[in-house]
Amino acid sequence: MGVVTDGTSKYQGCIDECNQCAQACVECMNLCLNEPDAAERKKCISKLQECACICKVAVSFMTMDSRHAADLCKLCALICEECGQECEMFQDDHCIKCAEVCDKCANDCQSI
């Protein structure tokens, strides 16, 4: 159920997953920037930023019930999958948890 309407109920699970994924990516990115091997994480940090951004935009499109919401969610799923794969390359807890959140978000976005 939406915040003020039921009009976006069909997207609510994915909206919640995308919001959580965006938050996880920003948190993970901040932690990666402070890791001693931050220079080796450049690609991962970039992908985390992309993933957080696309998740936020996907939430907006779903909340507006845009006719392009499904198209954007497919792109979001792809970027979430890529981000999860990048995070899996690092074995610290925050990257492992973020990869799990990204994979779950990708699955939800793929089903839109």
Automatic annotation (TrEMBL):
Pfam families noted in UniProt: Csp
Signal peptide positions (record): none
Protein name (Swiss-Prot/TrEMBL): Four-helix bundle copper-binding protein
